[in-house]
Amino acid sequence: MPTARRLFLAAIFACAAALTATTPAAAQTAGKDYTPIVPAQPTEDPAKIEVIEFFSYGCPHCSDFHLPLSAWVAKLPGDVVVKRVPVTFGRGAWANIARLYYALEATGDLA
């Protein structure tokens, strides 16, 4: 990739990151900055914000996303809960890994 194109793309990403980093959640507008889910989906604790991560152990993109997501989760405030849901993409072998995830979660051995 030519150097000029790399610099242009880097500048675009830097501007986008700066814009999203400086917009606090309270200043965002429903319908413009995000789309509310209507009706709201039930959660275990209505007083907490629930973030659901759908992932697969067989997906390289999920693997790449794991470290940044884990760093983000470590800094979350007390009113935010992250739940993980393994997906199989219809593959039988991956279904066994998803079952293993839930077994480890139930026994407290997930870490």
Describe this structure in words.
The chain is α+β, with helices and mostly antiparallel strands. It has two domains: 1-30; 37-107, Glutaredoxin, CATH 3.40.30. It has helices spanning 3-22, 60-74, 92-107, and strands at residues 49-55, 80-86. Strands 1-2 form a two-stranded parallel ribbon. The protein starts with a helix and ends with a helix.
Query: With helices defined by DSSP (H or I, 4 residues minimum), what is the helix count?
Result: 3
CATH homologous group name of the largest domain: Glutaredoxin
What level of helicity do the residues show? Answer: 40-55%
Largest sheet: 2 strands, parallel
Average pLDDT score? 82
- Spans where pLDDT lies below 50 across 5 or more residues: none
Oligomer category: single chain
Molecular shape: globular
Provide the β-strand percentage band.
5-15%
H/E topology pattern:
HEHEH
Structural class: alpha+beta
User: Could you give the distance between the termini?
Assistant: 41 Å
- CATH domain class of the largest domain: Alpha Beta
Radius of gyration: 18 Å
Integer tally of domains: 2
Secondary structure tally: strands: 2
Which fold name fills CATH's third level, the topology of the largest domain? Glutaredoxin
Lateral arrangement of strands in the main beta sheet:
1-2
| Reported CATH architecture of the largest domain | 3-Layer(aba) Sandwich
